[in-house]
Design brief:
The chain contains 5 helices and 5 strands. By secondary structure, it is of the alpha+beta class. The protein starts with 16 loop residues before the first helix and ends with a helix.
Amino acid sequence: MQLINDTNYRAFPAVSNSDLTWLEEYWLPQHIIIDLRKAYANGTLIDAMITEPEKVDYFKLSVQGEDYQYSADEFAAAKEMKKAFYKDPFCAAFVKQCKFQHISYQPDFKVNYEGFDFTVPAKCKWDLFRPDIDLSGDIKKYCMHNTKAG
């Protein structure tokens, strides 16, 4: 049995949130998809600044492994979001006890869609994970949600 890990995560044969997002985007108008890609890229930037700072190149305005060229304004905004993240008492305390980029795998994840029950192999790469209390978080989704609200 193949084990899922950081090296094979993207190719591992299981459904991820990214896969489901891609499927959702299939039905969206093109102008919305372009906006989403920019939002995802900026979510990736703030995520990397917090959980994988070694991947952030502040001189080239890039994130290792990502095919997106950030602007100086995007980097400045991400720096401010990082400051805001650490100013939040819950986030500051939570992140101190987290594993970063934790992978979960469930070979028989239960789904009910319109009355049909079935299972799919599912995977997730959590930005933040507290194994002691089995609690996880996704920085990108948080940032995108707050960007839409504000």
